[in-house]
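**User:** Everyone, produce a chain:

**Assistant:**
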Amino acid sequence: MEFDNLKAQGNDFFLKKKFDDALRLYTSAIENAQSCPPTPEIEKSLAILFSNRAQTNLKLESYGLAISDTTTSLTFNSTFAKSFYRRAVAKLAIRDLEGALEDVISASKCLNQKDSKISSLEKELRSELRRIRFESAIDIKEGNIWTKIEWSGFSTIKHKFDDISYFDDSDEAQIEFKKGSFTNKQIDTGLGIEITDKDNGDIILRGLTDEFIQNMIVKFKRGWKLSNHDAFAIVCGARSIFRKEPTMVQMSMNPNHKSHEILKGCKKLTICGDTHGQFFDVLNIFEKFGNISNEHAYLFNGDFVDRGSWSCEVALLFYALKIKYPNRIFLNRGNHETNDMNLVYGFKDECKIKYNEKLFDLFAKSFQDLPYCALVNHSGNFEIETNPDPNSYLIMHGGLPSSPMKLSDIDALDRFAPSALQPKTGPFMELLWTDPQFEPGLSPSKRGIGQQFGPDISKKFCSDNSITGILRSHEVRMGGVEWESGHEQRVGTVFSAPNYCDVQNNLGGVVHFTFTDSVELNIETFEAVWHPDLPPMSYTKNQFGF
């Protein structure tokens, strides 16, 4: 049968990790099988084909489509254990734990003998559900000394730009911890952060210099780690800065704009997408395109942790740079800067093994403090203008909210509200999760979370807000940067993790903004570089089909 040949080709591509090709061939096989007269054998084949395509969608992180395909597979064979298991994996990925447990129990019942993968997933789900129920049943009132931080010499970033902290090219940064932050004043900080007692009992941590950061990089490249106190100090210091930034950070290369003050003296702004714990590729970004300096700023557009096995190193490097250069590196929150994703995709386990769970808890709080988006090269006038400012972009990790919103509405969002801390619905979730689509209008996301928005949605948003377009990340693009089909260069996707998860063979990409007589946009790409022989998600047991 023709569909058997197509399935065999799809299987071959899947084994070679060419998932887009496998998806195409499984789809052709399904269409061919559906054109045949229905028989028990055809239905059995369709159950397998839909299940195979679901497994491919799991690899492509299209969890909503995987759930749909496994559900269809089970209509053809209601006792197909693989489809129950794969649907459970997809539900786990979107944190539908109850639904995942139901499916994994069904998968187990379909077999006459125990299966180690099914048993392992069931054990993991039951354990996680017990933990969630336990934590929701008790009132945890643990004082967190690490929140009592003041940043020495850094004033609040406000929309009144005369209150902005201009770039200070000092030799070192300081972190001031309030009295009681440390019980032991004799701390081995590992790389030379100096601790000084003040007369009132407060403690100042000094020494976060460029030399400290370079020594930290050398240490990480050798497979070593920071002392716990250095790591805690860096996360605390960065967090104190994030909390003072607005939900939508405004910056401009154009000296005629109010938000140029935050980039005063800067000649280039580089936008990077997902980096996903690929530390050696992050170092290559700086080596290839230039280090952070007074003249060169960077914006990393979320998803800098999970998947890759150097997520701690990437996050600590970014945070240390944020402390040293608060107005030259900016971090947007991505959907992987959330607890649910960190539990599944490795960052929590990596933190626990390399440092301890308390550091993960502190990172989790810092993720809640991150801005959600940035407005670049815009005048700051949110009233409708006749023409958009040249190369003015709203930059967020995912995409546009499903409800019509103006820039002023996004700017006014309170990201410290309880519903925004670990968002499941509404505009905060959508800023992290939504994707563009070729078709007009809105439709449910292939991921199973959020929406997809069409060219009509992006066109109206850009027109209503007088911006050139939207830059987002969140999806692998083989060329590193891609203008989304149908959106007439209003929506671009930037992905900066080359050879994602060591299997995709994609390029990484960045977008540069520079200013001479006007703001110019340039795209550059880069290939993956060597890294130690450590596969993705090396520190987690949650390998269930991901």
